[in-house]
């Protein structure tokens, strides 16, 4: 029996799932997840920790003394951050140099042989296969992401808003290139090199990763993140369109979809901006309104190009002036004084504060709204009434591997585009069915004729007097208008049946008046005693009026003045101060201690409930006993999202 025939390796995406690149992605996801959850900087500054280590140091060996000179590290120093990133920068720069050399060799293979300075580099790269170059690039990228995440976690920086490197797409692209150029196909001195456009699609994200990794060395360099990422993103889009429209070589399919989406977003943003500017110039003569409706939609310098592009593109798709609050209809004129006062009504909006491990990450100051004018409060006038705990995102590792942030923004944009398409389709269908013409017609006026309206009034007035008596309503027999006999309309010649009907109606009216008089006598208010008392207590010199009677019954009323209100306020504050002083005297020392151990003073504030109830030792004990989802305040039992420690100088 012959040797069994082994099946060929699975090509394409199925081969990627069995390759080392996919295994590396799984390992990277696990490592980044553990770094994100375990690596947390201490709350105490470096100077205090270094002083404590010096104070606790005893006579030790030379090795321990040398270690004491190095550790603990000061992560606020740019030199420390640079030293930690030196290994990753070395391997990453080496990978970039290899790909630049491959790009030059793909254009002119004799370039490195003509120049003596570049000849050693060309020979060194020529000996490497594409498989080795792609795998080395993947390992360098993984090392860079691990070191970047580790140092960022040790520094305690907020990495929630930054879009990380898309490692999954980059690994798949490297796998496709390595599978397309196996090492055993070419045995010549200079192996076959990839297409130059394929090399550019690999080199662009690699250069962007190098730049962003260098920007993390200095904190003030982070504001250039958007500028560098925008330059790289726009160059990638321009390269995509050049290859598609002017080059006979096809564009790589691994990044084709991403470039198409970015092109659509840029087109939507450009159309929105052009239409907005054109509308304002033609109607007002100048651009006076924001192009994207709100300044919060504008990208921040610390953001990535893709995140800013998707947010502005989504806002452009949702921009509309024919629906909702953007639909301006005819104005309403009101000259009432009350409306003018309401327009200038003062409204105070308290500030908000976002706090995370690194401290206060964002603060919204309080302001006073006076009509259209907003006055920002500062200093002690800035009351912070809402404190939000902003925890570090634990899905950063997944964001790094799969670029979930990019996908979330893509889904948001697709949903907005779907809603806009539905609105357009509904308007088109309504126009086709003639609904638009019907809505444009003026509303018809319906005239209420006398007989119809009078019949409704008679039905509402023709109510049984007994039912009105039971409901407590006033029953009187003089509700009808008086009509003298000589002004009534003369009767016309009618039949005997009409005369009989008239006699019957007159008899019914007489019975109804008699019944009304009876119920009116029964429903009369018995108020003789209060009226008699009022006459006796009143002044005999003047008659008792209705206003005087109400004053006697309700008691004297005093019109408050500014002085009286101020006196009442002062009296109230004095009473509150005296009661507070008595309460403080009654409070014992236990009221200021921890509610759990009742020994240590309270120095931990729980967020967002703002309860000051724990000491740091009890807080640490509670944190170690259960998971974070089960942490609750010992006073109000609300879930605890974070805490702050009070430092008393």
From TrEMBL:
Residues 475-509 have a biased composition (Acidic residues). Signal peptide: none annotated. InterPro entries: Znf_RING, Znf_RING/FYVE/PHD. Keywords: Membrane, Metal-binding, Transmembrane, Transmembrane helix, Zinc, Zinc-finger. One of its GO terms (biological process) is ubiquitin-dependent protein catabolic process. Residues 472-509, 545-564 are annotated as: Disordered. It comes from the Eukaryota. This is RING-type domain-containing protein. It comes from Polyporus arcularius HHB13444. The lineage of its organism: Eukaryota, Fungi, Dikarya, Basidiomycota, Agaricomycotina.
């Amino acid at each position: 029996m012959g040797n069994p025939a082994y099946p060929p390796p699975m090509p394409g995406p199925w081969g990627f799932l069995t390759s080392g690149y996919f295994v590396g992605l799984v390992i990277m996801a696990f490592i980044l997840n553990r770094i994100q959850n375990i690596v947390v900087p201490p709350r105490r500054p470096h100077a205090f920790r270094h002083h404590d280590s010096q104070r606790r140091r005893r006579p030790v060996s030379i090795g321990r003394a040398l270690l004491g000179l190095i550790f603990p590290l000061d992560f606020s120093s740019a030199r420390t951050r640079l030293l930690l990133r030196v290994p990753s920068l070395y391997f990453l720069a080496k990978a970039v140099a290899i790909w630049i050399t491959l790009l030059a060799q793909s254009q002119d293979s004799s370039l490195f042989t003509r120049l003596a300075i570049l000849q050693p580099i060309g020979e060194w790269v020529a000996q490497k296969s594409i498989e080795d170059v792609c795998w080395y690039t993947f390992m360098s990228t993984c090392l860079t992401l691990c070191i970047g995440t580790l140092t960022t976690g040790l520094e305690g920086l907020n990495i929630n808003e930054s879009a990380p490197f898309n490692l999954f797409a980059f690994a798949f692209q490297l796998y496709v290139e390595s599978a397309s150029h196996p090492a055993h196909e070419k045995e010549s001195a200079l192996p076959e090199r990839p297409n130059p456009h394929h090399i550019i699609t690999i080199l662009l994200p690699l250069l962007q990763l190098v730049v962003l990794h260098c920007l993390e060395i200095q904190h003030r360099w982070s504001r250039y993140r958007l500028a560098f990422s925008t330059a790289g993103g726009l160059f990638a889009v321009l390269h995509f369109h050049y290859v598609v429209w002017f080059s006979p070589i096809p564009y790589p399919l691994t990044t084709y979809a991403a470039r198409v989406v970015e092109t659509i977003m840029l087109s939507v943003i450009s159309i929105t901006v052009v239409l907005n500017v054109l509308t304002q110039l033609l109607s007002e003569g100048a651009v006076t309104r924001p192009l994207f409706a709100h300044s919060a939609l504008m990208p921040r310098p610390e953001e990535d190009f893709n995140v800013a592009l998707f947010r502005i593109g989504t806002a452009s798709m949702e921009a509309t002036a024919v629906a909702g609050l953007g639909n301006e209809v005819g104005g309403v004129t009101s000259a009432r004084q009350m409306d003018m006062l309401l327009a200038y009504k003062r409204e105070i909006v308290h500030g908000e504060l976002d706090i995370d491990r690194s401290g206060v990450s964002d603060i919204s100051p309080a302001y006073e709204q006076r009509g259209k004018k907003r006055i920002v409060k500062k200093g002690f006038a800035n009351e912070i009434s809402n404190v939000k705990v902003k925890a570090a995102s634990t899905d950063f590792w997944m964001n790094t591997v799969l670029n979930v942030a990019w996908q979330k923004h893509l889904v948001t944009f697709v949903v907005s585009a779907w809603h806009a398409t539905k609105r357009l389709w509904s308007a088109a269908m309504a126009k086709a069915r003639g609904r638009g013409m019907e809505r444009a017609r003026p509303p018809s006026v319906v005239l209420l004729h006398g007989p119809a309206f009078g019949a409704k009034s008679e039905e509402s007035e023709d109510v049984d007097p007994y039912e009105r008596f039971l409901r407590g309503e006033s029953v009187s027999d003089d509700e009808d208008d008086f009509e003298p006999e000589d002004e009534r309309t003369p009767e016309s010649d009618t039949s005997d049946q009409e005369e009989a009907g008239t006699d019957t109606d007159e008899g019914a009216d007489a019975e109804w008046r008699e019944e009304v008089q009876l119920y009116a006598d029964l429903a009369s208010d018995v108020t003789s005693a209060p009226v008699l008392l009022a006459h006796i207590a009143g002044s005999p010199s003047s008659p008792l009026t209705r206003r005087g009677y109400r004053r006697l019954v309700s008691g004297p009323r005093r019109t408050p003045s500014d002085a009286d209100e101020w006196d009442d306020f002062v009296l109230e504050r004095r009473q509150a101060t005296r009661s507070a002083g008595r309460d403080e005297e009654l409070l014992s020392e236990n009221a200021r201690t921890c509610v759990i151990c009742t020994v240590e003073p309270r120095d931990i504030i729980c967020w967002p409930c703002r309860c000051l109830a724990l000491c740091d030792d009890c807080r640490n004990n509670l944190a170690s006993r259960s998971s974070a989802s089960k942490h609750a305040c010992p006073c109000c039992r609300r879930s605890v999202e974070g805490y702050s420690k009070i430092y008393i100088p």
